[in-house]
Amino acid sequence: MKELNVNRELSLVVIPNTVLLHGKNITIKVNKEIGNEVYQRVAQDDFYGIVLAPREGHTGDLYRQSDFYNVGTLIKIEDRKILKDGYEFAIDVIERAQVQEFIPDGTNYRVNYNLIPDIIDLDEKNQKEMINYIKALVSEISENFKGSEAYVGYINKLEDITKIVAYLFPFMNLSFEERQAFLEIRSLRKKGLRFLDILIDQKESIKFQMEMAAKFNNKVNKNYRENMLRQQLKAIEEELNESEGNIAKNKKDYKSLIEAANMPEDVKEIALDELSKLERQGPNSAETNVIANYLDLLTSLPWGESQIRDIDIEAARNLLNKQHYGLEKVKDRIIQHLTVMKLKKNKQGSILLLVGPPGTGKTSLGKSIAEALQRKYVRISLGGVRDEAEIRGHRRTYIGALPGRIIQGMKRAGEKNPVFILDEIDKLMASASGDPASALLEVLDPEQNNTFSDHYLEVPYDLSDVFFIATANSLVSIPEPLRDRMEIIDISSYTSREKFHITKEHLWASVLEQHGLSDDQLQIEDEALKAIIEKYTREAGVRGLKRQLAAVARVVSEKIVLGKVDLPYVIKDNMLFDILGHEIIQYDKAGKNNAPGVVTGLAWTPVGGAILFIEGALMPGSGQLILTGQLGDVMKESAKISQSLIRSRLALSLKYIEFNKNDLHIHVPAGSIPKDGPSAGVALFTTIASLVTGRKVDPKLAMTGEISLRGAVLPVGGIKEKVLAAHRAGIKRVILPKDNEKDLMDIPKDVQAELQFILVDTIEDVMKETIGIELPKPEILEMTTDSINTGARV
Q1: Which runs of E-coded beta strand occur in 434-510?
Q2: Directed axis angle between helix 265-280 and helix 287-300, to 10°?
Q3: Cα(396)–Cα(277) distance, rounded to whole angstroms?
Q4: What does CATH list as the number for 9-115?
Q5: What CATH number has the domain spanning 313-411+419-447+469-490?
Q6: Which residues form the catalytic set?
Q7: What fold characterizes domain 598-789?
Q8: Which of 223, 453, 547, 747 is deepest in the core (most CB within 10 A)?
Q9: Rounded Cα–Cα distance for residues 511 and 653 (Å)
Q10: Are residues 737 and 713 in contact, defined by beta-carbon separation less than 8 angstroms?
Q11: What is the mean pLDDT of residues 474-501?
């Protein structure tokens, strides 16, 4: 072989499920993702590269050195054609190469290599004889195929074993490992003999198929159309010398399958007993299919030891960062969990529960975790499941019995340690058929699930190596015993800033691809994107946002197809009305001058925070407290507590107000929307205090917090969403319970910089900051929120 002027360090090129044999130029087609990766890597070395095949069993996009065979081929890409669904490469397969060293290069490798050409251990005479023998076999095989003359004619012109083998190699019926083993043969003699063996096997296989077809054709009769499949089955049975009375299910070699399944001894005994029953059944027995289906399940489930793969923590973090913007605390918790798994050699000890509003990426986080761990991904949806048998399966005594979804998922996974997503676990429903949530108690308990019992399977199955991840929108409907078995990770709603970055980095490209567009055809300005987020969506996640972007892409797609616009077409914010219509969302804004009795509160909703105006009026009456605006029981109680606190704290200052002769009316606008919760207590108190003292409250001041009858301000939830809503509405100061100070860490720095936070722990602090009245603080007994949350009674 002549000396090549090629670098001894080249990029490693991965073309999945492909083994290239030197000695022939070939043309291959690949999808866009693989094609871009291959082209970019070879372009830096004058379009040379080293093609190595990844070993079977590798999953995911990230490769390690051990994932590759170390013998491949040196190639040069001579030409590239762009197709509708990918690329077509013309490749010169130059020579066999052996890698000496892998050099990390981003998410892939460069390699140092040596060329290892064939060892010519045949003289010219023997080469000629081997070539003639190969040509004779090819000619004999080709007689069974119409239109093969052109291929045979081309082969007859070749006088080089290597070129003949390279030309015929793609047509051989070989497994991936057999193709790689063939590539690694250096001896020309061994290569030629092995190829002859392959040709002979191919010839015998074709001959056998032809004989079977002939035998079948001789037995075809006038009932051919109705009985074709049955006659084919009968011909195969006769060829295998099987007895006439057995059915296809019986022909499976269940004994070998049971031996190969690596079952525990007790399970193996049960399987062999069932096989013995199956062999005793008559040809028309109703039990035959039931037993055969059961043995199919037993032999297809993964029973052996889990394959322990090393967890690359840094690669896992990079993958999570690449696929999910923001969610820093959530990703930190996941990485910490993976770190513990790495120290414990992948043994699973706890179950994760991702809780958050719809569209915030809970399920996709589960996919990313599976990819980072290089494990199989299995997902089942539990929304609306109301039958315990969906989890534990049916007894085999019932007609149409099936195993439960857990065992079915393990069968699909094919390995004992998949990442198993239990989606919408909060949507489980109890019924007369049992409580599926109770059936999950055993599944999600690391102390019990090593002997999980499925009614159909009837033998214990070990789930202790499975990484379970549950998702839910709310914790309220999840029973306490089930919740106690899982480690809860809260995923909060996205801020507008986070939605903007998610769209720029992920959603926009996805929408363009789904609509057959490219960035050269359609672009969107940042201001237009922000306007869609703020004025056309109101949600915690980004599903609605993606729908609006899709609507934009559809409208523009029509204009592009009809040739009505110049490219690239750029979407500006003043064009949104024509594309999406009227703005859907209108957020409340802080007022300019509130009258006495009007206060701005803060509320949490499933789609983020909102400001809440609370209005009060005092009028002659009989001392009634009138509440309107669809307030719930807890909010009504907060109003009553506020009225009692005003009367007790301001008794001396308000002698001129006769509460028994005046009615107090409190109204919360947006009356069609139900409202409830204790966090409006501070705002309700301030409304009444402002009303009875005649003092105005700053319209740029908003507040949240629960109050007690002793005048304490207690902590509340949803601080991040409430503060973001205040910032969006133009609020400048926010009153929060002092115990919520720790929650300020979750608020983006740019929002914190534009707001002033006032921390209070009594209603005297509230009055001082809102209406400017200072009162002495009474002694307040210490009370923890724990005593409230656990339902303590006095």
Answers
A1: 452-453, 460-461, 467-472, 486-490
A2: 150
A3: 15
A4: 2.30.130.40
A5: 3.40.50.300
A6: 679, 722
A7: Ribosomal Protein S5; domain 2 (3.30.230)
A8: 747
A9: 63
A10: yes
A11: 83
